[in-house]
Amino acid sequence: RHKFWETQPVGQFKDVGNSTLPEGAIEPPTPLSEVKQEPYNLPGPYEWITCDMDTKEMCAEVYNLLANNYVEDDENMFRFNYSKDFLQWALRPPGYYRSWHIGVRVKSSKKLVAFITGVPAKIRAKDSVVNMAEINFLCVHKKLRSKRLAPVMIKEVTRRVHMENIWQAAYTAGVILPTPISTCQYWHRSLNPKKLIDVGFSRLGARMTMSRTIKLYKLPDSPITPGFRKMELHDVPAVTRLLREYLKQFIVAPDFDENDVEHWLLPKEDVVDSFLVESSETRDVTDFCSFYTLPSTILGNQNYSTLKAAYSYYNVSTKTPMLQLMNDALIVAKKKGYDVFNALDVMENESILKELKFGPGDGQLHYYLYNYRLNQPLRPSELGLVLL
Ligand code: NHW
Ligand code: EN5
């Protein structure tokens, strides 16, 4: 059934439920001298390139490939439209390798037709902190699908990750592959219900009018929590301490240091937004919430071309109840013009989604590890990791 994935060091379907296999690496690292030194062969018309995401031209080519060929929902009504600034941010975290930003061009025309990326991340699974690659943005041009290019791209990124002496990876996908460590549900909170209904993102509920629906999703103009403010550079040490302490409770979670927090969580306009609650007495940072910006192109609508979506990222509550904190996140997202606020049922999210009027979407997100076995699948609430 999975001619490629059956050959890879990932959990196999035949082993699901077999808790006698050891946890950790599925295969041991090989000496670096034994890592294949030349790139894998591509079909004749194509060539590998390393994408220099520092240059505007390369960034624009990648942006265009993804804007036209990346992930769509199951009815092909919406397609992710990651912005250029977002891609630069996502692909250049602390310690990134340019060699992990891999493109495929048509030799004759130089047209970019496929892409895959990795970025380094320290991820903790139970008690082990493991250097991993986070793999994302795998994309093959629509006209070149089903030609088995994806397995070559995955093998090539694996080879380049191995060259840096890294042997594990984490990735997510909307499709089922061998085999998920967890399966999460997307939830959606309407901020601009009229537009969402007009573009077919959501439907008018039974026995609901448009005006009742608009009223149902109304939000205050500004956040409720005293001391709620945007995160600033000087907050990085306090936010790092808060987040590190919080993420300890999850079975799989990133191991962020201050450099990671500065990169991944310091606000960047139209890319990532972060807020915190500062205690007026102690000046301590007691709570934190964040979301990233990922619009979708609306395919074939007369009136609208893009859907502005916020995606819940990392949230920590110690003093402010999570419900109130996330409600404040909804309020600021609404104020900034987002149409919808999306979240997965990871971490503590499940407990607040219904009360905040999120509804389940038609999409799921499966989480995977490469060359790392966990004995049992995780509940979404045991996952402390959000990929972009
Ligand atoms: S998930 C988003 C993936 N991208 C899209 O969905 C965009 C639209 N679709 C496409 O561009 C986030 C194509 O359909 C793609 C497949 C390119 C998806 N992950 O070339 P063939 C990520 O980026 C397997 C992994 O003929 P295609 C995460 C499929 O099961 N494998 O198909 C990426 C089959 O193998 P099988 C996927 O449609 C993680 C084979 O590809 C997959 O023309 C990557 C068919 O290939 C997916 N999303 O192209 C893994 N979709 O064994 C990283 C299909 O079943 C692993 N396939 O026969 C770790 C590496 C690093 C390790 C380091 C130690
Ligand atoms: C990993 N980095 O299917 C990338 N999105 O529910 C790979 N549905 O937006 C991720 N089909 O349910 C790939 N509206 C997986 C995600 C692929 C994209 C995807 C789903 C997630 C989605 C929307 C639109 C459906 C359009 C028709 C959806 C219902 C919203 C409604 C709002 C009011 C309350 C009930 C729910």
Structure description:
- The chain contains nine helices and 17 strands.
- It is α+β, with helices and mostly antiparallel strands and 388 residues long.
- Strand 12 (296-298) and strand 13 (306-307) form a beta hairpin.
- 2-oxopentadecyl-CoA binds at residues 2-5, 69-71, 133, 135-140, 145-151, 154, 157-158, 161, 167-169, 171-173, 175, 177, 370-371.
Write the layout of secondary structure elements.
Elements: E1 46-50, H1 56-69, E2 78-80, H2 84-91, E3 101-106, E4 112-125, E5 128-140, H3 149-163, E6 168-173, E7 182-190, H4 193-198, H5 210-216, E8 228-230, H6 236-247, E9 252-254, H7 258-265, E10 272-278, E11 285-293, E12 296-298, E13 306-307, E14 309-312, E15 316-317, H8 322-335, E16 340-344, H9 350-353, E17 359-370
Parallel strand pairs: 5-6, 14-16
Antiparallel strand pairs: 1-3, 2-12, 3-4, 4-5, 4-9, 6-17, 7-16, 7-17, 8-10, 10-11, 11-14, 11-15, 12-13
Helix pairs in contact: 6-7
This protein binds 2-oxopentadecyl-CoA (NHW) and ligand EN5.
The site of 2-oxopentadecyl-CoA has 35 residues, from strand 5, helix 3 and strand 6.
